[in-house]
Sequence to fold (300 residues):
Amino acid sequence: MSVTFRPARADELQRIQELIVTSINDLTERHGFGAMATVRPAAFQLFSFKEDPRGLWVAEDGGDIVGSAFSWVCGELWFLAELFIAPRMQGSGIGREMLRRTLCHADEAGAKTRALITFTFNTISQGLYLRHGMFPRLPVYMFSAERKALAIAGADARVELRRAEASESHIAALAAVDMSALGFSRENHHRYLLSEPTTKGFLLYDGDECIGYVYIASTGHVGPLAVARSDAMAPALRSTLRIAAESGSDPVSAFLPGTCEAALRVAADHRMRITFPMVLVSDRAFGDWSCYLPRNPGFM
Fold:
């Protein structure tokens, strides 16, 4: 084996998704969850590449891509969105070398916090992260339910959803909520989501006060959802689930942090079920997870 490592190119990001899907499904099938991933457009990867290509790497063996890593930086946070090795090449040290290279991205960007979300049962990878000072901090669960079970739940009268736009005033409002919930701004990521044709963004209002935001995908998936104060989470999620159920997609789903009791209670009331468990890993605590629901393991 003669594996080489190099920065990724824009024209191979979609092909890399095929490797990632193969790797994810190999892992989830071995742990009894069945095949979970399907190949999707590499839109967020391409957006991030154009913003900062330093976070995307590949490993090659005889001209074949056998490993990939993708990280992004917002403010003081470095986030590892993807690190996957072809099943036949796992255990050969490629993951360790890929992580070392992408951690250089964190150092170059001056990030003070390093984090990622991975499958709870992916213990080998967690061991690698542990050796680099990143520890399991927070359980994150994928919940889902059929939309007909959600449609009977009423929206909360206190929360109004208003369509968000990529205007400076709306971006500023979105960034302000991020600062409150996460401790850093994600302005560029909001511009990305608001340009996505399959996703709708909303500002959440309690009267005249903007208390948060949420994005709802055409697939029925909710997230990210962020609120400026924890008491707004339950009514915000109830209203959001109603809107998602009305979209006509099945199932409706969301990632819920295990410490966000308000969101978990709403999920239980709506008979949503856990479909698979994940965990947030980081080198230090950050964010208020009673006020933030991730979009997915790559976007956070």
Summary: Residues 13-30 form the longest helix (18 residues).
